[in-house]
Amino acid sequence: MAVLTPQGGGISLVVIIAIFVPLVIASTGLRLWARRLKQKKLDINDYAAILATVIAVAYAFLTLSAVVNGGVGRHLAEVLPVFQTLSKITLALALVWTLANTAVKISVLHLYITIFQTRSFRYAAYFAMFLTAGYAITNCLQLLLICRPIAYNWDKTINGTCSSEAVPFLASACINMGIDVIIVVLPMPMLWRLQMPTQRKVALSVIFGMGALICVLSAIRINAIATLDYTDFSYSVVPDGIYSVLEPCLGVINASLPILQPVVNKLSKGLLTFTRGSTAGSSLNLKAKRNGPSWVGHRSEDTMPKRFQRLDDGHCLDDHVPLTEIHTPREGLIEVMSDYHVQSAPNERFKSKQHGS
After folding, report:
1. Pairing label, strands 334-338, 350-354
2. Contact indicator for 177, 219 with CB cutoff of 8 Å
3. Which helix (H) or strand (E) covers residue 24, if one does?
């Protein structure tokens, strides 16, 4: 299989793949971490998200293969020797793209069902699932039946026929965007009926409404398909390729956003602890610099010999004294409030009192 150097729009595709594939994998990893923090077993929506991640990554690498093995980003005249390879990859891309977006939609819709328990809402979500599954099946069949036999997609030297490709591709993109709009709008009435502060409702609406960005991408992709030049397919397909990579990748990320609150809490606590520790350490260092080095001119307290006084007054004191309160008066003495009376030496530095006396 020939390997071509990415050129033009092919370079843009390579850059986008290099950026978004790690983000997709990271978002799913954080989703699984969030489930572990909450000590919850994986649900159907989690398995669908994992499946969507695998298929979206596969789609990204297929797109990369279309660039380096099929010449995407170059004019068709330059890639005629590898045109059969490009045609095979194009058919595979269309099928995998459909499966990736279907897995994303199923994950989001099942998550809705687990969050909102209203019967009417659940029926609406199941209906959207039915539409999604029906769309996936019909679109895959359409892709496989455009050219008969299937090999005629990439080998025009054999006997076969192909129907128009432009209209089915455009219709598929429009139906896909329609389902995306339904999924974004579906939870909004339920969110605003919840008994919670308005600010929290707005925040949740933003999180669940991130799918609107995918709807915008779908609309832009429809325009890219409508303006596709099939006489110079390898060159003009670049915009469609970019939006087709972004849609499942952003879909996987968006499907995980509502799950990540435990991870956000965990990371924010860790950051706060680190910040406090750094601030305290800086303050101690600054104080040490002002007072000068402790080892100049005198011995450190840690190196001074210690003297200990044995208390042997015939009483056996327990090593473990249950403390209930500890007070530090202004004189610098420590008062230990306990349930036991401890008799102190005359030169005591620690003053003990019986609890309640």
Report:
1. parallel
2. yes
3. helix 9-37
Query: What does residue 272 show for φ and ψ, rounded to 5 degrees?
Result: -65, -40
| pLDDT of 98 | 96
| pLDDT recorded at residue 353 | 43
Residue 89, strand partner residues: none
- What is the maximum span of the chain, computed from C-alpha positions, in angstroms? 112
Which H or E run contains 153? none
Q: Residue 258 is which amino acid?
A: P
Helix (H, G, I), strand (E, B) or coil at 349: coil
Residue 346 CA to residue 6 CA, distance in Å, equals: 88
Note the pLDDT of residue 288: 56
The dihedral over CA atoms of 317, 318, 324, 327, expressed in degrees to the nearest 10, equals 40
Exposed e or buried b for every residue in 272-302, given b needs 16+ CB within 10 A? eeeeeeeeeeeeeeeeeeeeeeeeeeeeeee
Distance in angstroms (rounded) separating the CA atoms of residues 95 and 97: 5
**DSSP secondary structure string for all residues of 44-68:** HHHHHHHHHHHHHHHHHHHHHHHHH
Alpha-carbon span 84 to 319, nearest angstrom: 84
**How crowded is residue 94: how many other Cβ atoms within 10 Å of its Cβ?**
20
Measured CA angle at 243 (ends 238, 245), to 5 deg: 95
74-77 contact pairs (CB < 8 A, 24+): 74/4, 74/7, 74/8, 74/10, 74/234, 74/235, 75/232, 75/234, 75/235, 76/231, 76/232, 76/233, 76/234, 76/235
**Rounded mean pLDDT for each run of 10 residues along the chain, 357 residues in total:** 86 96 97 94 96 97 96 93 94 96 96 90 95 96 93 92 86 93 91 81 82 91 92 94 95 93 87 65 58 50 51 47 45 44 43 44
**Residue located via tokens 């299989």:** 1
Q: For the whole prediction, is pTM greater than 0.85?
A: no
Instruction: Identify whether the C-beta of residue 142 lies closer than 8 Å to the C-beta of residue 163.
Output: no
Q: How many CA atoms lie within 13 A of 119 on its CB side?
A: 0
Reported residue count of the chain is 357
